[in-house]
Amino acid sequence: MPRLDDVTRGRILYGGDWNPEQWPEEIWEEDVRLMRAAGVNSVTLGVFSWSRIEPRPGERDFGWLDRLMDLAHENGIGVVLATPTASPPPWVGRLHPDTLPVDADGHTELWGGRQHFSHSSATYRRLAAAITEDLAARYAAHPALTLWHINNEYCTHDHGDEAAARFRTWLRHRYGTLDALNTAWGTAFWSQTYGDWDEVLPPRRTHYLKNPAQVLDFRRFTSDMLLECFTAERDIVRRHTPHLPVTTNVMPLWSGQDAWRWAEEEDVVSVDLYPDPDDPFGAQHGALVQDMTRSQARGPWMLMEQAAGAVNWRAVNRPKPRGLNRLWSLQAVARGADAVCCFQWRQSRQGAEKYHSGMLGHAGPEGRAHQEVRRLGADLARIAPHVSGSAVSADVAVLHDWHAWWAADQEGRPSRETGHAELLGAWHRALWRAHLTTDVVHPEHDLTGHRMAVVPQLHLLTDRAADNLVAYVRGGGSLVCGFGTGVVDEDDRVRPGGMDERLRALFGIRTLHEWWPLEPGATVDVEGGLRGTLWSEELEADGTAEETLAYRGGELDGLPAVLRKGSAWYVSTLPEPDALRDLLAHIAAGAGVRPVLEGLPDAVEAVRRGGLLFLLHHGRGEVTVDVPGTHRDLLTGATVTGRVTLGRYGVAVLAP
Amino acid sequence: MPRLDDVTRGRILYGGDWNPEQWPEEIWEEDVRLMRAAGVNSVTLGVFSWSRIEPRPGERDFGWLDRLMDLAHENGIGVVLATPTASPPPWVGRLHPDTLPVDADGHTELWGGRQHFSHSSATYRRLAAAITEDLAARYAAHPALTLWHINNEYCTHDHGDEAAARFRTWLRHRYGTLDALNTAWGTAFWSQTYGDWDEVLPPRRTHYLKNPAQVLDFRRFTSDMLLECFTAERDIVRRHTPHLPVTTNVMPLWSGQDAWRWAEEEDVVSVDLYPDPDDPFGAQHGALVQDMTRSQARGPWMLMEQAAGAVNWRAVNRPKPRGLNRLWSLQAVARGADAVCCFQWRQSRQGAEKYHSGMLGHAGPEGRAHQEVRRLGADLARIAPHVSGSAVSADVAVLHDWHAWWAADQEGRPSRETGHAELLGAWHRALWRAHLTTDVVHPEHDLTGHRMAVVPQLHLLTDRAADNLVAYVRGGGSLVCGFGTGVVDEDDRVRPGGMDERLRALFGIRTLHEWWPLEPGATVDVEGGLRGTLWSEELEADGTAEETLAYRGGELDGLPAVLRKGSAWYVSTLPEPDALRDLLAHIAAGAGVRPVLEGLPDAVEAVRRGGLLFLLHHGRGEVTVDVPGTHRDLLTGATVTGRVTLGRYGVAVLAP
Amino acid sequence: MPRLDDVTRGRILYGGDWNPEQWPEEIWEEDVRLMRAAGVNSVTLGVFSWSRIEPRPGERDFGWLDRLMDLAHENGIGVVLATPTASPPPWVGRLHPDTLPVDADGHTELWGGRQHFSHSSATYRRLAAAITEDLAARYAAHPALTLWHINNEYCTHDHGDEAAARFRTWLRHRYGTLDALNTAWGTAFWSQTYGDWDEVLPPRRTHYLKNPAQVLDFRRFTSDMLLECFTAERDIVRRHTPHLPVTTNVMPLWSGQDAWRWAEEEDVVSVDLYPDPDDPFGAQHGALVQDMTRSQARGPWMLMEQAAGAVNWRAVNRPKPRGLNRLWSLQAVARGADAVCCFQWRQSRQGAEKYHSGMLGHAGPEGRAHQEVRRLGADLARIAPHVSGSAVSADVAVLHDWHAWWAADQEGRPSRETGHAELLGAWHRALWRAHLTTDVVHPEHDLTGHRMAVVPQLHLLTDRAADNLVAYVRGGGSLVCGFGTGVVDEDDRVRPGGMDERLRALFGIRTLHEWWPLEPGATVDVEGGLRGTLWSEELEADGTAEETLAYRGGELDGLPAVLRKGSAWYVSTLPEPDALRDLLAHIAAGAGVRPVLEGLPDAVEAVRRGGLLFLLHHGRGEVTVDVPGTHRDLLTGATVTGRVTLGRYGVAVLAP
Questions:
Q1: Reaction catalysed by this chain (chains A, B, C) (predicted)?
Q2: Closest residue in B to A184 (Cα–Cα)
């Protein structure tokens, strides 16, 4: 199997999306000259080139792309070549309206933006396959080609008739019989029993709440259909270039496809990552996505897209302050990235993203941001030989599953305040602040490589996953489990008792009497000065728990809030940030998990990759870090002994 | 005419919706065993059973229901049998798309939720009649059957073409000629004059404000069409079982059908009531709905649905704290309920309401909530012989009319802050806090049985209602009238002077110069320390008022805010809660209306039903109530003399 | 060319929309009697009369209008006659669904409101022309007719198929070839290149961001199509009455047609103006609209619609306090209005605007508001001979362009907080508070008549406009330019460097490194105690600026916030209100621009029109104004020397 290492060959890929079809060809030479000056060694071509390659049905215009591929190659820049199927040309939609997606209310999404394709459209798939075939045939032997990039940020939904037909096929495959579907979806309630497959639809507009199992399956179906689109194109390019790896860029905390499944189908896992420069926990958000991506990749991965400066889709789009792009880029490397790429190389002057920054912005080569892009290129080249291909060590597993997310964040739930992504972020943030490096792990996967496992919320928990957790604790693992876990089974059916009985036994809970979700801003007191937010629970212990923190005051006064039974902890509320950090640090210490480095200042993130120690300073002042022993800082070449001083957004990459 | 008494026969009905088609039959036996243990004597079957009874067009499967009816009967549990017409099976929508409702923008509401039926669809009506016919024929003679429950929470709108045709028919009936419609709707404005009946439509999407009289008539039409659906099914079941009463469960403060008209067509009036357990005035909200329902029933009524714990449709769904379900259930009995039922018996494990609590929740029989359900069953059984069938005494009438509501709460009005339901709630709350029991009365109905009448807001006031108010005051009644009353006539036409001239004469108002609605949060000062909210008025008195409280400060300084002329009071703002309570207590005292009991603590609600005095404590501490004389507390059997002590959510039912 | 002077003939027109078709004819006589008592000399008839004139296709009923025209004439009241084409009768929509507009999601806007016509519909245009033709023919010779009023508040959009076809035609005319369109729209990005004209659509629903140049052109197209509708009707009436002027009432800060272009096609410029009586800067908002309208008219103009009291489309609709209607009406006269008219004469009792005030409100002739209407009529008659037809003097030009607005306020921009209208308002407010009278000027127009020019924000700046600004400064003009100016060219293409290089050279800016938009509520400090809001910029000066105020603190510490080079100022943030006022006053003083009067109290607005000095007091207390010399107050006839005392909302009109 081709791998990312085949592409990097000891380097860190550096570059980004290059969309030169926006510019006259005379600019291309300047682009390449500036790329070389910036240390760019990889560009992504063709992401939105369908209308250029196939301006009219069946035509092919590859000449411009030939020239670009050659130009890249002549300049020693590798090409990540994208299939252009994320944005069909206007003629596709006009001649083939069946390729256009339809929303739950029946509105069609038209061309004039992007991603206006239906994953279920046979016509779309046929046209996408044809252009992929020709593209792959054309460039299979081109020496610039290093990696295939299929489509872009797969994320569309379709509720139209062709999608409905495919949904039925998918459901037949899942359930076999209509009876099984009726059972799984609980259609006996509200008189929804299907008597004929043709009655089954995507969750379209209803008068009141939709069937949640239908909604869940539609999310699963959508992920699978998009994955089919991916694998169809992957198989085509693989046929032409079996030696080259294939990837697609995902947005794991946004679009919500099942990235675990997707990663299995990719040779290289790549991700798009856009933390808000104005978010004080932007770096932690980045760390979470990086941990997740590395875990899916089971090794080095690609940061396929980030922004050198501002994006343009937030309400207020702040640029990256001086040093931040470098800091966050090196953070990605610390957490396993062997490619640091931006969308896009040269900022557009026209179109919907003309205010999204580029590596070469409107301010031009003298612009502050571009000067930083150059500095980063040099830094990456300096550390690459020491880091490329190496592994990140993490003792803590954070458990995450998209199906649990889809099942949890539905209408008609106990509280709309308990967003899955927000809970995942809160727990990861607490671990990050405790300087504990994490992997993100699927709940059915082997946990024995981690001393400690943390479950922010797994609303849906399969039998296999429940058994996995129990076995992990039996095997000596330390498990910390947040509320709202083990509520439903794989079919979104509430577990007897409202919480999986295996989990209850694991934590020493006899009865879960009631959920007590909290109003926004409300808190609940717990012994030991801990305050809970968002949620609380009326629990009855079974007497086997060895340690308990009780609620204080209010309706739950005296009832257990936190239980420990052996190495299994249950936390029935979301502790405030400091309290959650301290609790997790305490549990980690008990589990023998140490911070990456003792005595780290709050603002400094430390990560070990291979034999290197990355120190990343997220503050703007100056800070000193005690680092026992003597190291060489690969970025400066300096030898450091005992302590390292980091300035604003400073980074040290220490080799023994 | 069959009545509720025929069903209760000295008991209080206790139980709820039982949807056992969700469960394997082996659970049914457990259900019935647990019901008996909890004192359940009535269950509602079949509410969402259409797809079970008629899985394919024209088929009938009654076997499962036969077994359930028999099982209930064998266990001494009466059955409220529902027609299943609120949620047609998927095949109905697929084979008959004309049965599906369409919104104002043209979107169709599909199956996959519930209530996806058009009241105007001839096909729907035919199919609903057929299954109702067969259901009634099947169980007419079944000994378990006690009451018919038609459909469920009628509340759907339809703007589609068949509804448009029915709307035109309804309008022809109302207005006779197109000229009369044009006059009533004021179509001379904005060039809306209709020249042909076929031009008349439901209020669909427009560029700017819709014709308000058209919107009002569409609300009336919708209520009438849904009522036609009800009466059609009622007539069918009545033909089979003329001896059994018929009801349907309404949501009077939500869906907005004209419950006065509906009550006339029902044998038994029943209601669904879901106050927010977290709302400090949840109990008063309950009291208002209970007063309204009792007034429509003109005697005992059914609480058809409440929740034993949390619901699942709020943003944050709080459970009922220990004791609250019992307190609120007994409050309903105090205010006239002879049936206390829950949705639903056993909490669902699947479907859209799986997080809506049940009498038997996910926690099972040992769950705290279920234990309380058992206690409540015992309490109800204890007091039933003393209370069932008896009347509630109330001296104060609160006037309410749905047509006034529909006319008031439209776009293009003076203030969007003055929601009708909120005003009704605010005035009722002030009376409730003053320990004054209220009936809710239609403004055209006889008021002479009440010493005091309160009009929160009757934006639309018919001539007959205006005359009724005048006659009431002439006859010695005390009338208190809030702002925004008598503004429009039955056709939504503004009364000359902006307020009915009869009312102005009644209160001593010469001229209503301007409305001065207040911005959210703003207040206006009035003499006597009273502060007004939401609204104020620039009024000119005619010199006949005997008492006046003037505005202080601002643009209205010195102008009358409150006027009294004889026993007629006009209040041109919404006083802050304490001030409104005090004002109404003062007026009541003047009218010879006393609180239910003197010296009641704030947290204790007192209601007299039959010869009994209910004391309901809405607080969590302990409170002592002075009760002159000696009574027996029917709940405890204890004799109490002079004073009663009530604990957290405590209730006493005192017999002389 | 006929002009407004031909209508006013030394008078100020006073009156408003008269929609007597809402009332029985017996009321018409009362109307006219009350109009005369109030000094009304002009009424607008027919705005919404299509269904009355043409109740069925092709019929004509003019008799009622004949009687009204005669009645007006007999009473010396001139008639502004409206074509009734803003609200087609129901039969038009039913028989000709192609006349109905369609929104971006495909929803049709139906009759039942108003303005449900598509500017692009050939059928609509044909029917509108036919009724206009007959109306003009009928009344061409009527002695009451003084002015034509075409349609009403043109503002509708249409995304339907016929509009799409016209859009393509418009685009062909603009661009000639599809290649040119592709280039202008930057369709090479996101694979949007059009290969066939038929692929080009209005900006309908897309999956993600729309092409911004397409959106901009659609706004231009919409303005042009509506203007075609206007000119088509104008040409018809002009043929019948070449001696009479033609106007249409625009809403320049709301609907967003290009009022510069429109004004060129009108004989008289008229405006609808509805400041919020509760807005502390309502008067300034009025002043801005008045300045803009006067500037478009290049002389006297009509206030076609205002409200005598409350409107009904805000969330909370406050009435006008005593004196405010007079004050704001006289403000309009001060700023050039020769007509002060209201919507509408008699307040409706029915329909969607029954809670919109009238000159004769629901309270009737004795109502406070109507009494004020009478007083105003007398005031206007008193000052008219001295003011009608005269010019307003203003030394400051505020530059404004609708195309810049449309280009700026799109999705996908750096900050959604920087609304164009809000910025325009903020800058004008600062000038107004500094007592500087302003004209509003198109950026390509001659600026040499103004000593100072202010650019709040011209996101899109054409080459011609940029050259105009440079030439203005070279010629000695003082230019003050706000941020976000000169960003894109006429095709919405970002200028190299992110800001027009001519502007950068003008202000001494070498490089615009980054935009730093601010989060809502955030501020940034600048030297001299100035604080900026909404926006900041990372600028690098080129050393030619003569004066600089630097940012203090934060990421931009020490970088230039405000630059002056000669008489050209650049302000890279929005200073807080007082600071902006002071800055502009300082710059004005340097440019030799003096306030209208020295030492004016904050609450007093002063404007010079012809030889008169208007003093307008926007406060409720009493205030004294120093006015050197001796004047006669035309409103009171009093002679004032040295100082004038103004009471609540007081006005003085001082003649030398």
A1: Hydrolysis of terminal non-reducing beta-D-galactose residues in beta-D-galactosides
A2: B350
Q: What does the pLDDT read at residue B254?
A: 81
Domain count, chain C: 3
Across-strand partners of B615? Answer: B606, B652
CATH of the domain at B222: 3.20.20.80
State which of B590, B613, B636 marks the end of a domain.
B590
Q: Which residues of chain B from 361 to 420 reach within 8 Å of chain A, CB to CB?
A: 361-364, 366-369
Neighbours of B608 (CB within 10 A): 18
B128, B51: one domain: yes
**Same-domain status, A372 and A431:** no
What CATH code is carried by the domain that includes residue A423? 3.40.50.880
C642/B contact by beta carbon, under 8 A: no
Q: Taking the CB of residue B419, how many other CB atoms lie within 10 A of it?
A: 16
Chain C residue numbers touching A156 (CB-CB < 8 A): 207
Task: Give mean pLDDT, residues A319-343.
Answer: 98
Residue A273 lies in a domain: yes
B353 and B421 belong to one structural domain: no
For residues B108 and A199, the answer to whether their CB atoms sit within 8 Å is no
Q: Percent of chain A, pLDDT > 90?
A: 99
Alpha helices, DSSP H, located in C18-160: 25-37, 50-53, 63-74, 90-95, 122-139
Q: Within chain B, which residues score under 70 in pLDDT? A: 255
Position A256 scores a pLDDT of 81
Tell me which chain B residues have a C-beta less than 8 angstroms from the C-beta of A519: 278, 316, 318
Q: Same structural domain for residues C269 and C292?
A: yes
ipTM (interface predicted TM): 0.97
Same domain as A516, residue A484: yes
Sign of CA dihedral C133, C134, C140, C144: negative
Q: Which residues of B touch C278 (CB under 8 A)?
A: 519
Please, are residues C418 and C517 in contact by the beta-carbon 8 Å criterion?
yes
User: Across the interface, do C310 and B515 touch by the CB < 8 Å criterion?
Assistant: yes
Residues 6+ away with beta carbon under 8 Å from C493: A349, A350, C184, C186, C213
Domain boundaries, position A41 = 4-158+230-387
Q: How many CB pairs under 8 A join A and C?
A: 187
Q: Is residue A438 part of a domain?
A: yes
What pLDDT score does B296 carry?
A: 97
The domain boundary residue, chosen from C357, C387, C417: C387
In chain C, which residues have their Cβ closer than 8 Å to the Cβ of B190?
48, 87, 113-114, 351-353
Whether residue C363 and residue B491 make contact (CB cut-off 8 A), yes or no, is no
In this structure, are residues B509 and B502 in contact, taking their beta carbons and an 8 Å threshold?
A: no
Q: Specify the DSSP class assigned to residue B518.
A: P
> Are C649 and C329 spatial neighbours (Cβ–Cβ below 8 Å)?
no
Chains touching A by CB (3 or more pairs below 8 Å):
B, C
* Same domain assignment for residues B475 and B561: yes
Cα A267–A268–A274 angle (5° rounding)? Answer: 150
User: How confident is the model over A150-182, as pLDDT tens digits?
Assistant: 999 999 999 999 999 999 999 999 999 999 999
Place of tokens 């609300």: B219
pTM of the predicted protein model: 0.97
C109: amino acid identity, one letter: E
Are A349 and A383 in a shared domain?
Answer: yes
Cβ proximity of C563 and C575 under 8 Å = no
**Is C622 a catalytic site residue?**
no
Q: Which 503-522 residues of chain C touch chain A by CB within 8 A?
A: 511-520
For chain C, the chains sharing at least 3 beta-carbon pairs closer than 8 angstroms are: A, B
A42: its two tokens: 């990889």
- C35 and C154 co-located in one domain: yes
Q: Is C153 a catalytic residue?
A: yes
**Exposed / middle / buried, residue C22 (Cβ in 10 Å: 0-12, 13-18, 19+):** buried
Instruction: Say which CATH number the domain at B611 has.
Output: 2.60.40.1180
Token pair of A407 as six digits: 């099942």
Q: What does the block give as tokens for A626? A: 């005690």
